[in-house]
């Protein structure tokens, strides 16, 4: 049975962020993920997760200046010092949130800089893997479709495999977001069956629309969940979608998996 993690950046937004942990637990979630926890104190976030009995399965390293359109620093030439400093904050939060894996975003890079950006990406990820290995943390990279994030540097799961092959780091994994992967590359079940040992975290959402992962999606999610179970997937499945209405009303798709 899949272990679902409520994405508290997109779900339960009917209540303030720090109240979402209890709201998710009340609906039966045992895990959560957070895109960017940094607006709240690490201690408060960790306490709220612990009090709600939620495992924090994943969060993102600081993305740079989100309001200015930055979507990560790892592949952005000239921002290496800032990238390295951002890891210190991510490690601080990982400690308080008791979370053992961090998604490091590549960033938006003009196409003419992509050749230089790839070298910067490899250098920064190697540094991050070595720094986080010392803290017993995993580094995850997530291909993101260019429709949702124009100009984002890492878009295809096969390109993420190339990065893992080049760096050969034991603590470097793919965050396999099925919503993005279906849009950019497809072949979801082949990729899962062929690379499950290189996938530390999975996220789901309906395609198209990024709403609930239910029968209105072109992906047959119950089939995928059964495949994950049969394949022995031990990670979490992050519910990273935009509810069509109230979060709780939209959770009908998860009823059979969420413990009450
Ligand atoms: O899919 C996404 O957008 C997220 O998983 C993320 O980390 C960037 O917002
Ligand atoms: Mg995602």
Quick description:
The chain is an alpha/beta fold and 260 residues long. The protein is built from 8 helices and 8 strands; from the N terminus they run E-H-E-H-E-H-E-H-E-H-E-H-H-E-H-E.
Could you characterize the architecture of this molecule?
Belongs to the hyi family. It comes from Insolitispirillum peregrinum. The structure is a single chain. An eight-stranded parallel β-barrel has the order 1-2-3-4-5-6-7-8, surrounded by six helices. It has a single domain, classed as TIM Barrel (Alpha-Beta Barrel). The model has no long low-confidence stretch (mean pLDDT 97). It has 260 residues and is an alpha/beta fold. The protein is built from eight helices and eight strands; from the N terminus they run βαβαβαβαβαβααβαβ. Strand 2, helix 2 and strand 3 form a beta-alpha-beta unit. Helices cover 36% and strands 15% of the residues. The ligand O=C(O)[C@@H](O)C(=O)CO binds next to loops.
CATH class: Alpha Beta
How many DSSP-defined strands? 8
Element-level helix/strand string: EHEHEHEHEHEHHEHE
Q: What value does the average pLDDT take? A: 97
Largest sheet: 8 strands, parallel, barrel
Distance between the termini: 15 Å
Low-confidence stretches: none
Question: What is the count of structural domains?
Answer: 1
Helix segment count? 8
Percentage of residues in DSSP E strands: 5-15%
Bound compounds, each kind once, are: the ligand O=C(O)[C@@H](O)C(=O)CO, magnesium ion
CATH topology: TIM Barrel
- Which radius of gyration do the C-alpha atoms yield? 17 Å
Structural class: alpha/beta
If strands are numbered along the chain, what order do they take across the biggest sheet?
1-2-3-4-5-6-7-8
Helix percentage: 25-40%
- The appropriate CATH architecture is Alpha-Beta Barrel
Shape: globular
Question: Considering the protein shown, what is the CATH homologous superfamily?
Answer: Divalent-metal-dependent TIM barrel enzymes
């Amino acid at each position: 049975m899949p272990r679902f993690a409520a994405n508290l950046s997109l779900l339960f937004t009917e209540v303030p962020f720090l109240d979402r942990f209890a709201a998710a637990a009340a609906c039966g979630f045992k895990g959560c993920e957070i895109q960017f926890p940094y607006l709240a104190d690490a201690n408060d976030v960790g306490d709220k997760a612990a009090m709600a009995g939620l495992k924090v399965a994943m969060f993102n390293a600081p993305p740079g200046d989100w309001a200015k359109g930055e979507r990560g620093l790892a592949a952005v030439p000239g921002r290496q010092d800032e990238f390295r400093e951002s890891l210190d904050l991510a490690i601080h939060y990982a400690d308080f949130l008791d979370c053992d894996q961090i998604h490091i975003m590549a960033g938006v890079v003009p196409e003419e800089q992509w050749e230089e950006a790839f070298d910067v990406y490899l250098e920064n990820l190697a540094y991050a893997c070595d720094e986080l290995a010392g803290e017993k943390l995993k580094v995850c990279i997530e291909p993101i479709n260019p429709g949702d994030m124009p100009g984002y540097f890492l878009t295809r799961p096969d390109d993420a495999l190339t990065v893992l092959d080049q760096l050969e780091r034991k603590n470097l994994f793919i965050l396999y977001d099925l919503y993005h992967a279906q849009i950019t590359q497809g072949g979801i079940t082949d990729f899962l069956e062929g690379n499950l040992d290189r996938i530390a975290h999975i996220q789901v959402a309906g395609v198209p629309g990024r709403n609930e992962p239910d029968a209105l999606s072109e992906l047959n999610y119950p089939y995928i969940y059964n495949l994950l179970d049969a394949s022995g997937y031990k990670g979490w499945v992050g519910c990273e979608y935009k509810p069509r209405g109230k979060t709780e009303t939209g959770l009908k798709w998860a009823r059979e998996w969420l413990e009450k």
